[in-house]
Amino acid sequence: MDSRILLPALLLVFGSATVLAQTSAPGTACETKNGTSCDACLKNVTCLWCITTKSCVTYPVKTILPPHALCPLNDARWGLCWMNFQALIITLAVIGGIIIIAFIICLFCCCKCENFGSKRFEEKMQRQANKTKTKQEERKSEMKQRHEEIRKKYGLSGQNQYSKFA
Predict the structure, then answer these.
(1) Is the torsion defined by CA of 110, 112, 116, 121 positive or negative?
(2) Taking Cα atoms as reference points, which of 51, 45, 39 lies closest to residue 19?
(3) pLDDT tens, residue by residue, 127-147
(4) Radius of gyration (Cα) for the chain, nearest Å?
(5) 58, 82, 84, 118: which has the fewest Cβ within 10 Å?
(6) Torsion of Cα atoms, 69 then 75 then 78 then 83, to 10°
(7) pLDDT-derived band at 89, boundaries 50, 70, 90
(8) What is the distance between the alpha carbons of residues 20 and 149, in angstroms, rounded to a whole number?
(9) Which DSSP string corresponds to the chain?
């Protein structure tokens, strides 16, 4: 299977499994799980586990990232015990950058290819128009030649006979 498809599919499945595995217990406070394990703390999605203090705290949703006084980023765990916030932020930034760069490249290629295709189409139409024009001129000259032959055959090659009366 192509790695471009496999990696996002695995991330999607893994993320879905993580979210489904975590159950939000509205009545359970995170602070009651202090001194337990990381897995026990992170069963509640609102909890944050700090490795250095081995404490389970409620995730500070008002600040996007937990403050350093609460827990350093490389020691904070949320969702998964094996992934720290620092690695998560770097990974998401890199993936986001790659997606943006890929989008810009695709946009550039599509626009460039579209213009190239339209130029090619215009050239093809111009060639067809030129070919049609030359055929029309050939037919016109043939028709003129045939008319001259008919005039010669019937002796009408001179002046117009009605021009005398004008």
Answers:
(1) positive
(2) 45
(3) 999 999 999 999 999 999 998
(4) 40
(5) 82
(6) 150
(7) confident
(8) 93
(9) --HHHHHHHHHHHHHHHHHHH----TT--GGGGTTS-HHHHTTSTTEEEETTTTEEEE--TTSSS--TTT--TTTEESS-TT-BHHHHHHHHHHHHHHHHHHHHHHHHHHHHHHHHHHHHHHHHHHHHHHHHHHHHHHHHHHHHHHHHHHHHHTT--SS-GGGGG-
Query: What six digits make up the tokens of 87?
Result: 């690695």
Residues recorded for the chain: 166
**22 and 44 in contact (C-beta within 8 Å)?**
yes
C-alpha–C-alpha distance, residues 143 and 1, integer Å: 67
pLDDT in tens, 10-46: 666 666 655 554 444 444 588 888 888 899 998 888 8
The number of beta carbons lying within 10 Å of the beta carbon of residue 107 is: 10
Residues pairing with 50 in the sheet: 55, 76
- Is 28 in contact with 44 (CB distance < 8 Å)? yes
On the 0-12 / 13-18 / 19+ scale of CB atoms within 10 A, 114 is exposed
> pTM higher than 0.85, yes or no?
no
Structure tokens given for 78: 């949320």
